[in-house]
Amino acid sequence: MRDKETPKANRPQLSLHVPEPPFRPGDTPDYSSLVVPDAGSAPKPDIAVDAADTEPLAKGLVRVLDDAGKAVGPWDPKLDADTLRKILRDMVLQRIFDDRMYRAQRQGKTSFYMKATGEEAIAITAAAALDRDDMNFPTYRQQGLLIARGYPLTEMMCQVYSNRGDKLKGRQLPIMYSSKDHGFFTISGNLGTQFPQAVGWAMASAIKGDSRIAVGWIGDGATAEGDFHAGMTFAAVYEAPAILVVVNNQWAISSFSGIAGAEKATFAQRAIGYGIPGLRVDGNDVLAVFASMRWAADRARSNKGATLIEFFTYRAEGHSTSDDPTGYRPAGEAQAWPLGDPIERLKAHLIGLGEWDEERHEQTRAECDAEVRKAQKEAEKLGILPEQGKDDIGSIFEDVYATMPPELAEQRDQALDEAKR
Amino acid sequence: MATMNMIQALNSAHRVTMERDEDIVVYGEDAGYFGGVFRVTEGLQKQFGKQRCFDAPISECGIVATAVGMAAYGLKPVIEIQFADYIYPGYDQIVSEVAKIRYRTAGEWSMPMVIRSPYGGGIFGGQTHSQSPESLFTHIAGLKTVIPSTPYDAKGLMIAAIEDPDPVIFFEPKRIYNGPFDGHHDKPVKPWSKHPASDVPDGHYTVPIGKAAVVREGADLTVLAYGTMVHVALAAVEEDGIDAEVIDLRSLFPLDIDTIEQSVKKTGRCVVVHEAPRNTGFGAELVSLVQERCFYHLEAPIQRVTGWDTPYPHAYEWAYFPGPKRMKKALEKVMAD
């Protein structure tokens, strides 16, 4: 510490600014001061737009569904009712799936689970806006991509249970799915790593003169990782055909988005400094999510380079089964969130169009519930976590390399020998 | 057949493989137009175009991460980290991603790539142009680590690494890019052209990964070395007049333990040498393995000749670098024990 009696003592004393979320446990959340631009108010530029000209879009919020559930403004993708119904059903299915897997963890059938409650619109609608062979580099909260692309629920559950049906052979923590066939790159526990990887995949597609594009996913908290910067830089330099998505759900475990830098600028605004167009989009508005993803995909596919999209949403539940959010935020915050619930908003929209009703919704909910229960029954036939890890100990040593080196073969024999005793 | 130094041999390995396989892409800082600060990628952009060989931003994280994405797509990236001392910003991508993707996807995805990087000291490179971080990679399951010591091996191992289905960390001892260096820094450096291993075939050939080379046969003791230290060891052995067997490991993982075991069981004595610091260096693994496998054949404690457990100092280059003098001391000690 410096002596107070220095010649510079007449200067004002510095103090460290540590951002605090607006509400803590015990507070009544009040979002009336949060600026939510009207649906339909954001302009829709041409895909050849200069990054700098997207500043208002990066600061604002692209919204299509208004408070009455009507689609308004230039971003309305004018989707047909079948597409909307499919998205709605996928969202309902995912929420039920998440609830049942959460419960399975509480029942001791597996070690860990992570829900995406409140964020269903983003991944599911993104999948609808992309081509089937576009590649995603997801985080652990984009299970909606798999659901939307028809990945079997039983296989997802087998992975969660690390059971005999787990195609990752019990090696990965639950929810770290991988499916090349569904354009879903293997999930890593290390945050942010997949974001620049997506850029590399997109560069490869460009190198080979392909027409496929890549999507890199990251959360608000992980944008603070150096990988975010690397991904943005490479995407800009090589005009990579990629869509770079920041899912801003306001929370990184217990840290609010201000700790990641959101107090000073939106995440979408960061794009402009790299020379990449940035959009900030209502993440609970299926139509806005679809339109923005399609716009960015059109840009990428026509060699205009990458787009950064910040989906503004709210993590409605705990970070994971190992987290209790009442320790750091008010219990009623999700309910107070001004952008509402994505399922309820799309449901209201479809009902308004005369393409849906309460009865059909309830019927869909019941169908999805039955589908999830059936899948769970099938998955549990192949075992739950507490029964696993005994049968095929030799498999621990496989796939470290294409062929097992002698060093590992020796250890495998030792492990098998120990297991016998 | 041509006479090549190590740089030319590595360059040739790139050309030969890039001609055979259109999925190979080469990039790194200054690796494109300029051909690399050590000229290893010289002329590749001109021959193969900017889509196959290009300059990268100064971001080791980004270089490795994009290579992961490219390998996921189906390309074979051969990327350059300008100095091994600068590989650390890419370390998370290498350790958490590159090394583990085949395993964590049960083979659904693999990462065929080569991460090449000049390494090692003896060039007055100071703290950040001299390091030997190989043990940080041999410790990681899923990686192969290769270090050549001659132009012939450099080309053959590089082609093998590029064609390998698994990720290979390829450390190039920059001290011996232009000529073998035996640690006698006060004597003029010989060029590779005076060394038989500079006879390098123009076309395709491989030196298998995981196979050591006995570079000098001997009966009295076994020296385990790699990279520049192979030449230091050979010089020290000759000058000392000890009938030592010198083994160039060439590949640290997979390791040719059979060749090592056979030799130590024959000689009964072993000296392990490397430039990297001693504490938890790769030498510790070698000592353990020899102890485990050759205990009843050992006639003396195993000696280690390594860099000191300090950062690499600039002015004290020759007090730090484990040269022939320090080597000879160890050889004599292990013979006296």
From TrEMBL, chain A:
Residues covered by the 2-oxoisovalerate dehydrogenase E1 alpha subunit N-terminal domain: 12-51
Ranges for region Disordered: 1-44
UniProt name for this protein: 2-oxoisovalerate dehydrogenase subunit alpha
Protein function: The branched-chain alpha-keto dehydrogenase complex catalyzes the overall conversion of alpha-keto acids to acyl-CoA and CO(2). It contains multiple copies of three enzymatic components: branched-chain alpha-keto acid decarboxylase (E1), lipoamide acyltransferase (E2) and lipoamide dehydrogenase (E3).
Cited Gene3D superfamilies: 3.40.50.970
Gene Ontology BP annotations: branched-chain amino acid catabolic process
Reported cofactor(s): thiamine diphosphate
Domain called Dehydrogenase E1 component: residue spans: 90-382
GO MF, one example: branched-chain 2-oxo acid dehydrogenase activity
Taxonomy, superkingdom: Bacteria
Automatic annotation (TrEMBL), chain B:
UniProt KW keywords: Oxidoreductase
Keyword match Oxidoreductase: yes
Database matches in InterPro entries: THDP-binding, Transketo_C/PFOR_II, Transketolase-like_Pyr-bd, Transketolase_C
Cofactors, names only: thiamine diphosphate
Every Transketolase-like pyrimidine-binding domain range: 4-179
A Pfam family reported for this protein in Swiss-Prot or TrEMBL: Transketolase_C
Single biological process term from Gene Ontology: branched-chain amino acid catabolic process
E.C. number: 1.2.4.4
Presence of keyword Nuclease: no
Highest taxon in the source lineage: Bacteria
Gene Ontology molecular function, alphabetical: branched-chain 2-oxo acid dehydrogenase activity
PANTHER family reported in the protein's UniProt record: 2-OXOISOVALERATE DEHYDROGENASE SUBUNIT BETA, MITOCHONDRIAL, 2-OXOISOVALERATE DEHYDROGENASE SUBUNIT BETA-RELATED
Name listed for the protein in its UniProt record: 3-methyl-2-oxobutanoate dehydrogenase (2-methylpropanoyl-transferring)
Organism expressing this protein natively: Sphingomonas sabuli
